[in-house]
Amino acid sequence: MGSDGRLAPADTLIKPYQSSRHSRTNRELGGDEARRVPSPALVRRVPVASPGVELAEAVRRRRMVRGFSGAAPAPEVLESLLDLARRAPSAGNSQGWDAVVLKGAEQTNPFWEATTTAQWRAHSARWPGLRRAPVVVAFFSHPGAYTARYREPDKASSGLGAGHDAWPVPYWDTDAAMAVMILLLGAVDAGLGACFLGNFRGEEQLRTAIGVPADRRYLGAVLLGEGGGADPPSISSSRPRRSSSEVFHRGGW
């Protein structure tokens, strides 16, 4: 953390899983290979890990952090993480999701007022740690962008342009969820704490408070910042993770 209380840029962080034995810097890559390397500030001087090293470790280390110190990410780190999330897969390249980035108490307070109750805030052991999150990224999906895209000539034969009910899976939410996951993993890579809070109440109030169009659907929000302070574990965290053999049904169910 810098002297101003902000987290250092991601490219100055030492990540324990970024061993030089498995990595090469962008400067060591040449020709076409170098042109394929992403350019956000997040990876400007960070070693580019070989396949299966950095990503795998970030996935294993990821957890929902619900206690924050209040220290904000450096602006360039936050912008790099948002740019990574922007690159999430999208059905038909519809890109039908948006996110509202709220920074500091003045902007995040309306989020909490809309999505929680005074009773919950008064009694939840998690509230003090959550309220210190310096950044809230609220995700909204746009179903109309998908039906419009699938009415275009190259997609019309699918029939999905007929309306929302024609979609067996709401890909507007699926695509937004992929962006959420990228943001959560990017936070691990940047040395930040992060958690996802789902849509349980207050969607209409939240849309009004932060000026979101009525045709957008609130998916949930990612909190970002330096982890710190009390972070009471939930009962859910004590549930054992299902084994690979329980989850994956190879060759059939």
Secondary structure: elements and pairs:
Layout: E1 23-24, H1 31-35, E2 48-49, H2 54-61, H3 75-86, E3 97-103, H4 105-115, H5 118-123, H6 127-131, E4 135-141, H7 143-149, H8 171-189, E5 193-198, H9 203-210, E6 217-225, H10 244-247
Antiparallel strand pairs: 1-2, 3-4, 4-6, 5-6
Helix pairs in contact: 2-8, 3-8, 4-9
Note down, in words, how this protein is organized:
The protein is α+β, with helices and mostly antiparallel strands and about 250 residues long. It folds into 2 domains: about 50 residues, no CATH class; about 170 residues, NADH Oxidase (3-Layer(aba) Sandwich). The protein is about 35% helix and about 15% strand. A 4-stranded antiparallel β-sheet has the order 3-4-6-5, sandwiched between helices. Helix 3 packs antiparallel against helix 8. The chain is globular. About 20% of the residues have low confidence.
Describe this protein with a few key phrases.
single chain; 253 residues; alpha+beta; NADH Oxidase; 2 domains; four-stranded antiparallel sheet; two-stranded antiparallel sheet; 10 helices; 6 strands; globular
Outline of the structure:
The protein has 253 residues and is of the alpha+beta class. 34% of the residues lie in helices and 13% in strands. Helix 2 crosses helix 8, helix 3 packs antiparallel against helix 8 and helix 4 packs antiparallel against helix 9.
The number of helical runs is 10
Termini Cα gap: 49 Å
Strand content bin: 5-15%
At the fourth CATH level, what is the homologous superfamily of the largest domain? NADH Oxidase
Helix/strand-derived class? Answer: alpha+beta
What radius of gyration results from the CA coordinates? 20 Å
User: Helix and strand string, N-terminal first?
Assistant: EHEHHEHHHEHHEHEH
Number of strands: 6
Q: What's the architecture of the largest domain, going by CATH?
A: 3-Layer(aba) Sandwich
Strand order of the largest sheet: 3-4-6-5
Question: Poorly predicted ranges (pLDDT <50, ≥5 residues)?
Answer: 8-53
Mean pLDDT: 84
* CATH topology-level fold name of the largest domain: NADH Oxidase
What percentage of residues falls in helices of 4 or more residues?
25-40%
Largest sheet features: 4 strands, antiparallel
So what's the CATH class of the largest domain?
A: Alpha Beta
Could you say which overall geometry the principal axes of the C-alpha atoms support? globular
Structurally, the number of domains stands at 2
